[in-house]
Structure formats: structure tokens, C-alpha cells
Amino acid sequence: MPEPSPAGTLPQSGTRYHLGYRFLRLFADIRHGEAGKALLLALNVFLLLLAYYILKPLREALLLVDTGSAVIKSCLSGAQAVLFVFVIKAFSRLASKVPRHVLITWTTSFFISNLVIFFFLNLGGMAVKPMGILFFIWIGIFNYFVIAQFWGFANDLYSDEVGRRTFPLVALGATLGGVVGTLPIMKQLRDLLGGRWEYKFMLIAGAILLLCIGLARCIHRREVRKTRADQEKGLAGAAEKAKVQEQPLKAGGGFRLIFKSRYLLLIALMIGLYNFVNATGEFIISQVTINQSIANPAPTPAAGPQQSAVLARGQSAEAAPPAASPAAAMKTDSKGIHNAFMNYQLLGNLIALVFQLFLVSRIFKWVGIGGALLFLPLIALGGYALISFGAVLVLIRWVKAFENGTDYSLQNTTKAALFLVTKREEKYKAKAAIDTFFVRGGDTLSALAVLVGTQLLGLRIERYALLNVLVVIVLLVVCFKIIKSYKTRKAAADAAMPAV
């Protein structure tokens, strides 16, 4: 006998869908009654990622101002990891005192106020390099924290069965936000903004985040109204759900929840290992971009075609010739760096969009969450293995863009779905700790590897790629353990369902 459909849905077989639903079902297994909430969540995360991708290229434009900046960029992850300890503790305490919609309002408002402060620090005359360091630390905290908070909120709204089907559509909003935020029109907007364009972009992002607060509160109120209507109809579990929606989370810190659960600890280890790989890859692409900026500067009357020909032939990043003078070797062009990273990020986001539109939902359906979890490590394994044989500029960019595109689409959706079988406190507090501290923990270990490699060992780019290959092998072992633990949790949740 077929299992009954979850509340709010109809059986898939024999159900007729109107044109709007048929369109949405190209991207996810969405069913009757599920589109409204999913689309609002998709719009919310679209705006969050749009704001982030407006801000993301600014960190390189402000930070990568000389040849030693790529190493500084790697080392700043350690500062972020230390700060995350205090951020997560404060967040856990706040989450135990206020309901979820107030929690989201206060935390997002805090980040908006920070952007206003950066704007006025610039008006006050703060130098570019210290501003770049402060902004890099800030945006690393902002990015991981607000996205983790969003997915905790989304997990709180869905059951495991509905969430696995619906999350590919929700995540499509994130992917589209990344694409729009890196479109060439942003460069045109930058030129229209004129002087202090970096800081005017910050204010634009702050205005978008204000819209995100309004959307989150709208989604919360909508869900509360629906639950109260279910309660009036006498549906099972509606009364308990209505009570929980307006309550703060139970007391307890995010780190404590992680270390009490083998499943969460494995996820934290996976996140840390992958971010070691990703951060090392970011060092590679940053160093390549700086070398290109020096070897291929903006056209000037004294510039010749020889330097441009080096990179056009696709030679190794480390084979680029030195700059014509010591002064030229010390500085890079901020707009050139901004353009390079916008192009690189656009390529990654376009790949992510293709994955999110046509593959993520189908991969979930064909191989499940466990199988989906293995895709990114396998792609990273192959990509860095290729780079280890020769760090050609074009190859590095495409490998990183393909890795990031898979991460932004399939991997992010999969990581969010892993928390559908967790407790409510784990969805918010533990996920926030994992997606912030353990992310930056992996970045910090990468920074140490970069520091030792550049300052003591003088390693070439290819050696960093080989290091990533070794770490990915360990990552695959951890992923297999997560898959086993996830199946155990899901089986226990399914067994408890009839009692509920």
C-alpha cells in the first residue's frame, strides 16, 4: 500500500498540475500547496546572495593592493575563526531568548549597521589596506553566518520528506542571486557610482538586506497563520507546532550540541576539510590573479605586447615574467582585480545555475542525499589532480569555477538537507556553529599551510594542488561515514513518524 502524502500535498501519481506548477516541477518535485512558501524562501535567499555577491568582489579590490596580499588573505581566516567563537556564543544565547523572526531581524540589522560604519570610516579617511583587512574579516563572518541562519530557518519550516523535494527550488534562488550579483551590469553600475564606489556598493547591499528582514518576517507570519488554521481544523500535531513557532530555542550552545552528536561532528569535520581545500584553491587563484595583474598591466604608452602574450599563451602562473620595475611589482590595479574576480565568480555562478536548474533535483531523486554528497569531493579530486601536473592559468580558473559552481548548487543544497533529520536547536545553533567556526577552522589550517609553503618551503602552485588531492581523499572517507549516519537517523525518524 502506498504511503500517504505529507500534510499539504497530494499524491504525485494521477495529480494534474496547472502551468505554473508544471514549470516549477522542471526544477524540483514541487506539489500542490508547496509553491508559495518555497518561492518566498527562494526570493529571500536570492536577495541574501545578491547582497553578498555585490560585496564579495570588494574584499579583493580593497585587500589585494600589493604582491604580498594573497598570503595575508589566507592568514586572515584565522582571525575570523577566533571571532566566530564569540559570535556563536552570543548567537546561541540570543536564540534562547527570542523567537526566530526576532532573531533574524536583530542579527541582520547588526550586519546592516556594520556596512554603514564602513561607509563612514572611509569618509573619515581610513587607509585602503587596513580597511581591506577589516572588511575581509567582516564579510567572512557575514557570509557564512547569514546563510547558515537562513537554512536553519528553512529547515525549521519543513519536514524531511517535503524538504528534500523542495530545497532544490529554494536553493535555485541562491544560485540566481549569485549570477545576478556578478553580471557585467554591476561593472557598469560601479562606473556610474563614481568616487567611493566600493562604499556606495555597501549601502546598496544594506538596503537589500532590509528587504530580507521583511521577507523573513512575512514567511514567519504566513506559517503561523497556516498552523493556526490547521489547529482549528483539529489536525494532529498542529497545536504543538503552533506553540513551538512562537517560542525561543531551548538553552544550550551550538558547540555543545555538535560534540554531543557523532552525526553533527562528522558534518563539522567534512565542512572543515572541504574548506581547507577551497581556501587553498582560493589562494591559488588569488596568486594567479596578482601575477597576471603585474605581468599584464593596463595599457600605457610605455607598455609593450610581450607581457600580454605570456598569459595569452596559457603559460604557468609562476612562469610570468617580472614587472618592469620594482614600483610596478609592488602594486596592482583595484579595478583590474575587481574585474578579474567578477569574471571568475560569474563563471562559477553560471555553472551553478545550470546545475541547480537541471541536475540537483534529479541527482537527489536518482542517488539520494548520500550520493549527492560525493559529487563535489570527486570533482575537486579530479580538478586538483590536473592542476598538480601543471598550473596553467586557464585550467586553474575553470577548475575553481567548476568546483565553486558545484559547491554553490548541489553541495549547498545537500548540506542544508542533512539537517532535515536534526532537532530544532541543532538546525539553528549547531548549523550556525558548523557553517561558521568549522568553515573558518578549515580556512585557518589552509592559511598555515600557505604560510609554511610560501615563507619556509617556497612551494610552487602545483604543490598546493597536490596537497588538496591528499585532503580530498580523507574527505571522501568522512563523507561515507556521514552517509551511514544519515541513513540511521532517517530510519529512526521514519520509524517514529506513525507515533506522531
Give a quick rundown of the structure:
With 500 residues, this protein is an all-alpha fold.
Give your account of this protein's structure:
The protein is an all-alpha fold. The protein has a single domain, classed as Growth Hormone, Chain: A (Up-down Bundle). Helix content is 78%, strand content 0%. The protein has 19 helices and no strands. Helix 16 runs antiparallel to helix 17. The protein is globular.
Number of helices: 19
Shape: globular
Please give the number of β-strands: 0
User: Mean pLDDT, rounded to whole units?
Assistant: 82
**What's the N-to-C terminus distance?**
20 Å
Radius of gyration: 23 Å
CATH architecture: Up-down Bundle
CATH superfamily placement: MFS general substrate transporter like domains
Classified by CATH, the class is Mainly Alpha
Relative helix content = over 70%
- Secondary-structure-derived class: mainly alpha
The CATH topology corresponds to Growth Hormone, Chain: A
Output the keywords.
single chain, 500 residues, mainly alpha, Growth Hormone, Chain: A, globular
Q: Layout of SSEs?
A:
Layout: H1 19-24, H2 35-63, H3 69-95, H4 100-123, H5 128-157, H6 160-181, H7 185-193, H8 197-232, H9 238-245, H10 254-260, H11 262-295, H12 306-312, H13 326-330, H14 334-358, H15 360-373, H16 375-388, H17 393-417, H18 424-457, H19 461-496
